[in-house]
Amino acid sequence: IKSLNPVYPITCISPYFLLVIHTLRYFRTASTDIAGFPAYIEVGYVDGVEFTHYNSESKKAEAKQDWMKSFAVDNPDYWEMETQRNVVNEHVFLVNIGIAKERFNHTGGVHIIQWMFGCEWNDETNETDGCNQHSYDGEDFIALDTKTMTYVAANPQAFITTLKWNRDQDRKEYRKHYYTEMCPSLLRRLVNYGQKVLMRTELPKVSLLQKTPSSPVTCHASGFYPHMADLFWRKDGEQLHEDVDSGQTLPNHDGTFQMMVDLRLEVTDEVEGQYECVFQLAGVKGEIVTKLEKRNILSNARNEGEEPSSRILVTANVLSFTTCADLIARAYEKKTGNCCHVDQNSQYVLVIASGSSTLPTATGFLLVIFDGCPVLGHVYFRHLLMTIIHGPWRNTFGAFPPE
């Protein structure tokens, strides 16, 4: 949901070093009238890696990482307690979504409430911090200031709830204990058990992309781990802050991450070699530098005024999507996309297909393909950005290119 996308923040303390901060995040989501989709879901992430999952259909909290087996051996009651906690929370959330609908004078249709909470831990300074945000239908609803332990309403419909919660001293004391003691303690333990996975480093493939000669040049880095990374444009040794648009850090299907940054610039012979895209990864000295030169850019139209030589008609046999917690929903109806101009020599393809009519709030579908393999897809809802589609093209959409 708008403010609750799984965006992974970075803290940069110098041009060549990124401060490692470990994170623990839980995403709880309740929804109405989404056919085939669980009414309640909870997903837990440590350092951006999913480690626990519960939904209202399975009625069971489950481990998503092999190293959690060792954690369960040393904490034999953990999964049973997680299951019982989620059974209770499922009921509470389904009641709360009904209350929210009344507050906003909503009746039927698709509605979603979500709660994201957790903590951060700096393993060098031992400093900790917490986060707690609620949203309804893609809009901020309530947030907890974890410094003062005070709830703040984002709109008038939330005032009643904040007044009630801020008067509850027992609730305030529990939250303080949770964000200063319980959550950081669990985070440290999880990092310790999963350190072989969580503390590894993987460098990405960095590509320069441009849809047309007049489009911004996108620097795209995919396949890196951990999520604490920086990607920026530089000119003459100085980082650029104007004419650049930075995207969010998004998860890949294999546990790695991707990010991109756009540069609004006409690539002429005069500017070639003056600009460069720089990638830096936490825990790794040095950086990956990609010079802005025409030969390095993957584009749908290589030359100004060149007419693309082929068309591709995309037929989607399965359209699946994930929530911010990266949970896969059910398959939706067959849907045919629009024609996309593609240069046969290009490794980079943007395919725009229309949204599914089974999702009334969907407005579009974006798929990015490298070397014939989909690496990034989004379904855009009114205020929802849902990451989808990962894996071989043939397994997802059928033959490519069309027979």
UniProtKB/TrEMBL annotation:
Q: Which Gene3D superfamilies does the UniProt entry name for this protein? A: Immunoglobulins (2.60.40.10), MHC class I-like antigen recognition-like (3.30.500.10)
Reading the lineage from the top rank, the first entry is Eukaryota
- PROSITE patterns in the record, alphabetically? IG_LIKE (PS50835)
Q: Which family, according to the similarity comment?
A: Belongs to the MHC class I family.
Respond yes or no to whether keyword Glycoprotein is given for this record. Answer: yes
Q: Spell out the protein name for this chain.
A: Ig-like domain-containing protein
What's an example GO BP annotation here?
A: immune response
UniProt keyword annotations, A-Z: Glycoprotein
Q: Which GO terms describe its cellular component?
A: external side of plasma membrane; extracellular space
Q: Which PANTHER family match?
A: MHC CLASS I ANTIGEN TRANSCRIPT VARIANT 1-RELATED (PTHR16675:SF237), MHC CLASS I-RELATED (PTHR16675)
Q: Identify the InterPro entries for this entry.
A: Ig-like_dom, Ig-like_dom_sf, Ig-like_fold, Ig_C1-set, MHC_class-I_related, MHC_I-like_Ag-recog, MHC_I-like_Ag-recog_sf, MHC_I/II-like_Ag-recog
Q: Residues in domain Ig-like? A: 204-277
From which organism does this entry originate?
A: Hippocampus comes
